[in-house]
Write a structure and sequence with these properties.
The protein is of the alpha/beta class. The protein has helices at about 15-25, 40-45, 65-75, 100-130, 140-145, 150-170, 185-195, 195-200, 215-220; strands at about 5-10, 30-35, 55, 80-85, 130-135, 175-180, 235.
Length: about 240
C-alpha cells in the first residue's frame, strides 16, 4: 500500500482514463482500474512509476460486479482513498435517432456507473473517515451541443448526483466533485467525429486541441488533501470555452 492509498479509476485501459491513472501513480497512489477490456498498457505505465497496480474487467452497470470489484481492490491494495468515475460512452445521435435501447445504455454507463461505483466504494472510505470522489461530466452539458441528447442528459445527471452525494458524505471526510472536460484528443473521439477538431478549439480562450495530459492536473488536485474544502463543485477543463 502506498502512503497515499489506492486510487480507483474506471475506463482507464486507454485514453483519458489512462492519463489519469499515470498521473495519480506519479503522485504516489497505488492504482486500481475497472474497464470492459484488459488494461495491460496502463499496467505497464503505472508500474513504471513504482506503485502497485490491480485491474479487472468490470461492468460498471452491474451492482454485483461493482461490489465484487470493490472487495477485490480492498483485498489486493487496501486503503481506498480516491475514486475517479471516468467510464463513459458517447454516441453522436440526435433525439430523433436515439432509440430507447441507446438511451438506456448511455444512462447505464454514464450515470448508473458512477452511482454504483460510489455505492460500492463509499463504505470503505467511511471506514477511513476520508475519501475523494471525482465524477467526469462534460462541457457539452453547458454548451447545449446538438446530436448528443442521451449523452448530455447523462452528464447533467452526473452533476446533479455529485451535488447530492457531496451533501451526504461530507461529514465522513469524503469530498465529491466533477471535472467537465472539453473536446479532448483521443482515438475513440476522433473516430466518431474527426472534423469537429478543425473548428471547436477556435471557440476556446486557449485555442488549441485539448490533450488528455491537459486534464490530469485538475484530477490530481481534486483527489489530494489540498482539496479538502472543495466539494459539490464542477470544474470545467476546456481551455475556456465555458466561462463562468
Amino acid at each position: 500500500m502506498s502512503n497515499k492509498g489506492t486510487a480507483v479509476i474506471t475506463g482507464a485501459a486507454n485514453g483519458i482514463g489512462q492519463a489519469y491513472a499515470v498521473r495519480l501513480a506519479k503522485d504516489g497512489f497505488d492504482i486500481a482500474v475497472a474497464d470492459v477490456v484488459e488494461a495491460d498498457k496502463t499496467k505497464e505505465l503505472v508500474e513504471a512509476e513504482g506503485v502497485k497496480f490491480f485491474s479487472a474487467v468490470v461492468d460498471v452497470t452491474s451492482p454485483e460486479a461493482t461490489i465484487a470489484f470493490a472487495a477485490q481492490v480492498q483485498k489486493n491494495l487496501g486503503s481506498i482513498t480516491a475514486l475517479v468515475n471516468n467510464a463513459g460512452i458517447y454516441p453522436w445521435k440526435s433525439f430523433e435517432e436515439t432509440d430507447y435501447d441507446t438511451w438506456r445504455k448511455v444512462i447505464g454507463v454514464n450515470l448508473d456507473g458512477p452511482f454504483l461505483m460510489s455505492k460500492a466504494f463509499v463504505p470503505y472510505m467511511r471506514e477511513n473517515k476520508y475519501g475523494r470522489i471525482v465524477n467526469v461530466a462534460s462541457t457539452t452539458f453547458f454548451l447545449n451541443a446538438p446530436q448528443m441528447t442521451a449523452y448530455i442528459a447523462s452528464k447533467g445527471g452526473v452533476i446533479g448526483f455529485t451535488r447530492a452525494l457531496a451533501s451526504e458524505v461530507g461529514a465522513d471526510g469524503i469530498t465529491v466533485n466533477v471535472i467537465a472536460p472539453g473536446l479532448t484528443n483521443t482515438k475513440s473521439m476522433r473516430s466518431e467525429n474527426a472534423e469537429i477538431y478543425e473548428f471547436l478549439p477556435k471557440m476556446q480562450a486557449i485555442p488549441k486541441v485539448i490533450e488528455p495530459e491537459d486534464l490530469v492536473g485538475v484530477v490530481s488536485f481534486l483527489v489530494s488533501k489540498d482539496s479538502s474544502f472543495v466539494t459539490g463543485q464542477t470544474i470545467a477543463a476546456d481551455g475556456g470555452q465555458v466561462r463562468n
